Predict the 3D structure of the following.
Amino acid sequence: MSQLAGRRVVLTGASGGIGAELAAGLVDAGARVLLLGRDPAKLEALAATLGPTAIPLCHDLRDPGAGEPLADRVGAALGGVDLLIHCAGLGRFGPFDQLDDGAITALVETNLTGPIRLTRSLLPLLLQSSKPRLVLVGSVLGWLGYPGQAVYSASKAGLQRFGEALRREYSDQGLDVLHIAPRAARTEFNNPAQRAANRRLKVAEDAPEAVALAVLHAIVRDRRETVLGFPERLLCRLNQLLPRVFDRALVAHAAVMRDAVRDLADRPPESTGH
């Protein structure tokens, strides 16, 4: 990880399960990290454990007016940006017809439009770097539309296409975009209904530190596209070739999803941060 020493990093979703592990790995590798998140108490606590090269800064990706002032604060804190890592995420597992407008807006703004706006605000700083990198932590469900995750899948698929387009648009200025798609992870991101459905379907879940390490490896190796886990890696590719086969195969998963939600007496709140 010596390639990360001295790099100036902006990390969103820093207080989430994967985000906190990723922040620790970056600091251990010698990077200076600006920790972005919505919970100031969590950010302060994380920064206190990581030391002076981790700088907490409260920021809500859903605030459309926060990008430009934030760019000035980032520049003042780090003196520039070499790596912008989007690790923030919002999930809401359950039937699509039970999502209200507020939930849909929150999902799309956190997972897609917020990262797009922040990237636009920080792009001038990023392009001043000798080796600018944009890192998008997406999801296997951005490759594979999944029952109970319609809006989440759409937002993560959009994030992937955004990164692909941006790489092509700014490649002549040295920008590369890396996209990492984790499968399920053992964090608070998954609500009780999703954890119950995962158990019934025997869905594998990775430890957050394992996901963070995979993200770091993708960065130092400049891997443009990484899908974590097997058979997920194969299933994502096959879904692009044989979508009708997966349409039939995932009908049973939809039934399990509805049963898991129905079994909970109270509908669980949404969960934030990977």
Observations:
- The chain has one domain: 2-272.
- The longest strand covers residues 32-37.
